[in-house]
Amino acid sequence: MGDISNMSNGLSSNGNGNGNNATMGVQRKSCWYEEEIEENLRWCFALKSILHTGASQYQDIQLLDTKPFGKALVIDGKLQSAEIDEFIYHESLVHPALLNHPNPKTIFIMGGGEGSTAREILRHWAVEKVIMCDIDEEVVDFCKSHLVVNKDAFFDPRLELVINDARAELERREEVYDVIIGDLADPIEGGPCYQLYTKSFYEFIVKPKLNQGGIFVTQMLYLIQLISLPMLTLGDGSCADELDLRIKQRIEGENRYLDGKTFSSSSTLSKAVRKSLDNETHVYTEGNARFIYGHGKQH
Amino acid sequence: MGDISNMSNGLSSNGNGNGNNATMGVQRKSCWYEEEIEENLRWCFALKSILHTGASQYQDIQLLDTKPFGKALVIDGKLQSAEIDEFIYHESLVHPALLNHPNPKTIFIMGGGEGSTAREILRHWAVEKVIMCDIDEEVVDFCKSHLVVNKDAFFDPRLELVINDARAELERREEVYDVIIGDLADPIEGGPCYQLYTKSFYEFIVKPKLNQGGIFVTQMLYLIQLISLPMLTLGDGSCADELDLRIKQRIEGENRYLDGKTFSSSSTLSKAVRKSLDNETHVYTEGNARFIYGHGKQH
Amino acid sequence: MGDISNMSNGLSSNGNGNGNNATMGVQRKSCWYEEEIEENLRWCFALKSILHTGASQYQDIQLLDTKPFGKALVIDGKLQSAEIDEFIYHESLVHPALLNHPNPKTIFIMGGGEGSTAREILRHWAVEKVIMCDIDEEVVDFCKSHLVVNKDAFFDPRLELVINDARAELERREEVYDVIIGDLADPIEGGPCYQLYTKSFYEFIVKPKLNQGGIFVTQMLYLIQLISLPMLTLGDGSCADELDLRIKQRIEGENRYLDGKTFSSSSTLSKAVRKSLDNETHVYTEGNARFIYGHGKQH
Amino acid sequence: MGDISNMSNGLSSNGNGNGNNATMGVQRKSCWYEEEIEENLRWCFALKSILHTGASQYQDIQLLDTKPFGKALVIDGKLQSAEIDEFIYHESLVHPALLNHPNPKTIFIMGGGEGSTAREILRHWAVEKVIMCDIDEEVVDFCKSHLVVNKDAFFDPRLELVINDARAELERREEVYDVIIGDLADPIEGGPCYQLYTKSFYEFIVKPKLNQGGIFVTQMLYLIQLISLPMLTLGDGSCADELDLRIKQRIEGENRYLDGKTFSSSSTLSKAVRKSLDNETHVYTEGNARFIYGHGKQH
């Protein structure tokens, strides 16, 4: 590359000054992870190293070590979670649902191959059995080896790990569950997950597999209001102390993010978001799926 | 940038075409605004155009037209506000303070040259006089010409615009105010604002200029707890209906972001943030200032 | 971008300051033009302003004011030329061909809407008539208004500007030319130009429109050897003085880049490139076009 | 990161179209090496992996595996060489100097820790002894382990590897050399090399260590004309056949880049560069060093 290095004659003279520390830092940040969140919007994280790059049958997978957020899991070009703050997402996904149930013994996780959802579930004394069903063995395998914080969860005897399509696995099994949790990648075109976000899936596959009083929870942007799934009732604004009590009684160790006040606050949406939801009429079906920006492997 | 969750609802539908529009779009997004939020973290917005680039005596200024967020004001390389969601920040800065005061007639804005803070203040029927004191005439002038949404505010007879250092202006004036609002750029090294974030400034300059029962509010990341400024009491969790009532009675037009529930939710911090604040012992003084990542013009 | 080695001589001297100017500069470079040259390779230029963004029927067009290279013309997301060094490309495209012809009176330019090729041609005393045929009136119009350096050329009475497809125009016209110059955008998929790079086009459309002893020249990466177009003979390594003489006698003003030695050097390829060309067997036809990385508007 | 992933509601619907291959590719290129060549100019290469990141006493070092150029060595944030084309730089640095000497037996390399310069030197049958003196053991060590193509050179018995400052080593040794080669990083501020580009170093340290008829060569942007170092005479334009003959007789194996024509062409500068050099009056000394854009570790 010597020839190309010679391309530029741009010499700069700094005399005998100082003050260059900041500039040096700027020079040295040469490796970056870059994601297009939307078509016209990117974020970029400085990289320490690329721990793993691979492609399973279903997805492209990367495990990166980023400077601002620690280890980060990227699937099909979309950041899934990062070491520094994944506890926020996983505590919020798991604990409200389980604490809203009087005695959650059996849990089915759709996806969740990273292991963090299982980790939070297994902190509940009541839990006796967790089925974690992820389609992608490669994701599961290298999360198992790289994510130290989830190691105990992967080896907990209450956890049963199944490699299969979550829909097929739910249909195949005859037992029902106290809580079913959808911990899935976002619905992107060509990705393996978008069919697990539809009305018919929730109504005809998920609901019949719930026990009496069972609870289904998933991360999603738009609520589907037209099916009568059990909805959380804890978050009505007066329950903060009750939630704190249940957290203390039923969960091993201490939450970092979620307590009564946090739940109350984070489940109270702003006026602008409430208005946007009130105006939402779209029901997500196989035929009219809207996709998050991005593309998966399957076409 | 406030509540980002609602920032973009930009759905794109490609119907049953050959899908190349998206691909072409990717090729064509050639102009970008890029900001280093921290040393290892950037965000990038696709640009429509660069409306204005200038340097005043105090600051570097840019007015950009961005694809994802509309017109955006950038000072000293830091995004200050964007057309699409500035209402979130400005409603949150202005209304809780004014609504917490029984009869806010006289208001002093430190900074606020963009005009949006004045706009929100002037929606209050009670307000009789607003002093807006910004150090940078160039920022004020081109916001006046470019930001259509603030035009009425700039020409409201209740507004008195002063070009001066806010500290010097407060000292110079003899009158006192019902509400003083700090709408300042972040404290970056070499920028004009960091001395307006210190304990001594609040104690010896701001506080004496407040009326009996007067309220001071500013945007900041860390609260300074060691001085006895009047603190907001509205946000105690039971006031949501009362706040909605006052909004209806005292503010012209309708808020887009802030109502009782929103305030209750956004003023209830998560466990992780509360813990971090509990552990914070740093008191911001001239001698030990911590700076937001970035650099201003003055060294 | 031609001979990049001379592109920038931008020395910066910081004298004995505290060295923060450089750091500040880093903070302030917030607007960038970014181009993917290949799938895995980008270059980025800091932007002063976006002078024009438009889309004609055929192409997406941008005129940018860049910090390192001055005004730059971008078509379909690909940099076409930049103020600071366009003379290298245009002197190299025009003068060897015209100087190799004993008396070039009539010239046909396919494309060339930017005006720089016409400018160089019109410096030849011998030239009596130039047809410049570009498909895109919008490109021509705003280059005419923005590119001061080509203004005289656009208003030279010897220039006849035609807005049409170059192929159709050549076929339509009955006269023949001393020199035909292809000054076209690269062959990208969906762009308007790739059919002007094929064997059959050169053989059946271009060649019949050349006078006895006429010369055809175009910018291209791979020579097409299978058709018997007149090839340049000036560059055989012993002609440097003869070329300098003809430049002096036949061209008005002074070249900035091209003289005898420069032509001798730049027309002598390196061993690696010669070997690669020796091994090239691909003949460019409508049916087997290879495209430069990128995408045009037409699909 | 689940919370942040939920930031955007930007759903895109592609219906049942196709044409997404290109878009997918775009999505997946998430890791990049980025270098600021000058203050307003960057290039970016997609990354396969980060093979090594380290900091020696003298320099920051990275060995990257890039998609467009293969393995690339980066020192102090500046690309030094890349697998795909380093042969161009190293053949050009070594062979003209050695072939211009009647019988080059002893060679001293200042720097060259990558090993490629030694590799090219050791292809000369005449060479009996090569001293390679690099200041940075860490660079040498990991190039030895990672750069397979230089393995034989590192273990050639004619090579003596010394870890020391090249200036100190030259002064310390009493023997003189047939050829001295400067294969150094560019002179950047705070880097270890800029004092090896000065007039006094060439005159008082290098020149006395050359045999009668000895040759000194280094990569540089500006020639220093004021000292009477032996200059190459091979490149006078008529020597191409002679050079080809010497290459055949004196070098083992075949060059990929350099032959007589290539040398003749690449040593004939363009008019613009010649003019720029004619106007150059700066003599590089310790006191008035101009630096390439960038910063090293030492301040």
UniProtKB/TrEMBL annotation, chains A, B, C, D:
It catalyses: S-adenosyl 3-(methylsulfanyl)propylamine + spermidine = thermospermine + S-methyl-5'-thioadenosine + H(+). Its EC number is 2.5.1.79. It is an enzyme of class 2 (transferase). Residues 30-266 form the PABS domain. PROSITE patterns: PABS_2. The active site is at D183 (proton acceptor). Belongs to the spermidine/spermine synthase family. This is thermospermine synthase. The lineage of its organism: Eukaryota, Viridiplantae, Streptophyta, Embryophyta, Tracheophyta.
